[in-house]
Specification:
28% strand, single chain, 17 strands, alpha+beta, 6-stranded mixed beta sheet, Nitrilase/N-carbamoyl-D-aminoacid amidohydrolase, 5 helices
Length: 288
């Protein structure tokens, strides 16, 4: 039996409050389901503004537990619509322990698994180390009704090791919910190159691992950041199957023929030809 999975990414802007953001997300998920989506992935920290442009203790008030109001609501939606939902939120795990977390809700409304962001950046206007404890769950694919998904979050998308480990453990689709954009005084000089590098890095993950890949990104201007949207889905050959624009809320959808994975990997046998006996240096910070 042919395994075809319709993947949909939601690209949207901050709606002003957690409830409003969730309302907007639910409307997009319902529309995606009407259009035949099996898996719907929301963007990084979708329930509010990107909180990390400054080190501000008030932003911790945006966090919530798992389960909690957002995940409970989306679990009802997933079960009602029979879709898998990937919902990235600001997680309050325990007093003083917060994570940037993606929750994978299966098509029956049950919790399929969670991923906690492993690579935490600390760059201008992206001061995530102030807020987020690094993830402790490693890179483990999450089995759902429709596919085995490997989830990373934003900064994770730059690291080939993470993509490789997810693929080797059986991920069929890599998902990278994202909040990335241009800093206002850098866009003119560096903006095109930054955006191109972002897409190129993830398309390379799809190619080198023989997997489908989806990256939903937010849009809109928040403070000094202009989130560049451009959410996209790539094939195992690196082709961009569908993409959004730089500024509009919307859905990005493509059909992923999972049976193609074996075909692509036998024509481009990168996994077969890996020299696992020669990679011990990857466990070192630097090779002197």
């Amino acid at each position: 039996m042919t395994r075809n999975v319709r993947l949909t990414l939601v690209q949207m802007r901050d709606a002003g409050s957690a409830n409003s953001c969730c309302d907007a997300a639910v409307k997009w998920i319902e529309r995606a389901a009407q259009e035949g989506a099996n898996i719907v992935c929301l963007q990084e920290l979708f329930t509010g503004p990107y909180p990390c442009q400054a080190e501000d203790h008030r932003m911790f008030d945006l966090a919530e537990s798992i389960p909690g109001p957002t995940i409970d609501r989306l679990a009802e939606v997933a079960g009602r619509l029979q879709v898998v939902i990937v919902a990235p939120i600001f997680e309050r795990r325990a007093p003083g322990v917060y994570h940037n977390t993606a929750v994978v809700i299966d098509a029956d409304g049950s919790l399929a698994g969670i991923y906690r962001k492993m690579h935490i950046p600390d760059d201008p206007l992206f001061y995530e180390k102030f807020y987020f404890t690094p993830g402790d769950l490693g890179f483990e694919p999450i089995a759902t009704r429709y596919a085995k998904v490997g989830v990373g979050i934003c900064w994770d998308q730059w690291f080939p090791e993470a993509a490789r480990l997810l693929a080797l453990a059986g991920a069929e689709i890599l998902l990278y919910p994202t909040a990335i954009g241009w800093i206002d005084d850098e866009k003119e000089e560096f903006g095109h190159g930054q955006h191109d590098a972002w897409m190129t890095s993830m398309r390379a993950h799809a190619i080198s691992n023989g997997v489908f890949l989806g990256a939903p990104n937010r849009v809109g201007i928040e403070g000094r950041l202009e989130f560049w949207g451009s959410s996209f889905i790539a094939s195992p050959r690196g082709e961009v199957m569908a993409s959004g624009n730089h500024c509009d809320d919307g859905l990005v959808t493509a059909d992923c023929a999972l049976d193609e994975l074996d075909l692509v990997r036998t024509h481009w046998p990168f996994l077969r030809d890996r020299r696992i006996d020669a990679y011990s240096g990857l466990l070192k910070r630097w090779i002197d």
